[in-house]
Design brief:
By secondary structure, the protein is mainly alpha-helical. It has three helices and no strands. The longest helix has 26 residues.
C-alpha cells in the first residue's frame, strides 16, 4: 500500500460546491462582501495552499529531513 502524506493529500483537494457556497455566505454575512463563484474558488484555493504550507512548517519542527 502506498503511503500518501497529508501535504500531498491537501494538494489534491478541491472545494466542494457546498464549501464554496459556505465561503460566499460567510464573506457576505461577516464581511459584507459578495463573492462571485470565481472569487470564492480562488479564495478557497489560497486557503488550502496556506493550510498546506502551515502543515509543512509544523512538520519541519518534527523532522527536518522529511520535507
Amino acid at each position: 500500500m502506498q503511503r500518501i502524506d497529508h501535504a500531498e493529500a491537501i494538494d489534491t483537494l478541491q472545494l466542494s460546491t457546498e464549501q464554496i457556497s459556505d465561503l460566499q455566505r460567510i464573506c457576505r454575512d461577516e464581511l459584507g462582501k459578495e463573492l462571485t463563484l470565481a472569487e470564492a474558488e480562488v479564495l478557497g484555493g489560497r486557503m488550502l495552499r496556506t493550510f498546506r504550507l502551515m502543515f509543512e512548517i509544523s512538520n519541519r519542527h518534527k523532522d527536518p529531513d522529511q520535507i
